[in-house]
Amino acid sequence: MSEGDINDVLIKTLAEAHANTNHKLDIVHEMFRKSQDVTRILYYKNMSQEELWLDCAEKLTAMIQQIIEFAKLIPGFMRLSQDDQILLLKTGSFELAIVRMSRLMDLSTNSVLYGDIMLPQDVFYTSDSFEMKLVACIFETAKSIAELKLTETELALYQSLVLLWPERNGVRGNTEIQRLFEMSMSAIRQEIEANHAPLKGDVTVLEILLNKIPTFR
């Protein structure tokens, strides 16, 4: 198979994996258009710090389950050693959750689809300065990805890149992980070059996305 044929297969496979492990985009956009449910927003705002973080942890756990299912569908991932699979998921799941959060962001209202309700960023603020900084950082990263207006296919390929980032400490099968990473890199480059003009002079969308990966940590 030529590189182009391999790219096409990978693009199709990952796009399907992404679609099967995420909210459908039309449902997300329908939620964007709904008027704010002030009563429920106040309910979340009035939660105690502990109640809010427990609720967030529950939502995150559900999302990570979907991320694990997505990872299993990445061609070659299940052939990595079990130790490497676990390490990649352990260190990469939260990063993928932020990438997935980007498609749930309504940039016009600075709100995120949280379960079945749109919640503004300030709902997640607490009196703890570290937690405030964490929330701000998560929202800023998700918004910066959303602003690039990636297609669903590009988001799928980007998740594969983030998960397979070969510079993670502790992985053993570096050569195989690097090979899978480069396959995803070739595919996302093909997609982005077809869909996006360079930004800020000659800086490409792909360069911006790659520069974000080390900052997730």
UniProtKB/TrEMBL annotation:
Keywords (alphabetical) are: DNA-binding, Metal-binding, Receptor, Transcription, Transcription regulation, Zinc, Zinc-finger
Keyword check for Ribosomal protein, yes or no: no
Cellular component aspect of the GO annotation: nucleus
Looking up SMART domains in the UniProt record yields:
HOLI (SM00430)
Membrane-traversing stretches: none
GO molecular function annotations of the record: DNA binding; zinc ion binding
Coiled-coil positions are: none
- InterPro entries in the cross-refs: NHR-like_dom_sf (IPR035500), Nucl_hrmn_rcpt_lig-bd (IPR000536), Nuclear_hrmn_rcpt (IPR001723), ThyrH_rcpt (IPR001728)
Give the chief site where it resides: nucleus
Taxonomy, superkingdom = Eukaryota
Cell compartments where the protein resides: Nucleus
Q: Name one GO biological process term.
A: regulation of gene expression
Which Gene3D superfamilies does this one have?
Retinoid X Receptor
- Record bears the keyword Cytoplasm: no
Entries under Pfam families matching the protein = Hormone_recep
Q: Which residues form the NR LBD domain?
A: 6-217
According to its UniProt record, which protein family does this protein belong to? Belongs to the nuclear hormone receptor family. NR1 subfamily.
This chain belongs to which protein, by name? NR LBD domain-containing protein
